[in-house]
Amino acid sequence: MTSRLSRLAALASQAANVILFNGQADETISGRAWREGDLHGEPVWRGRRVLIDRLFWTLARQPDHCRESHQRDVEFALLILAD
């Protein structure tokens, strides 16, 4: 089970993805940066992914933050579909 703080951070990222980038409500900015930047080759999102990953490495020593965030977004979507 994820912590309340972790879920609130994901909620804030999802809201920012919608408000700032006109994205999907159930996708975090980090997950989108991985999907659009690395999977789809969008240069702007690849740059954002690099910046986000560097930030999370610096603050939390978390490598591959965006890839892991994308994976969590996918797992959450699969949970919703399973219900």
From TrEMBL:
This is Uncharacterized protein. It comes from Caenispirillum bisanense.
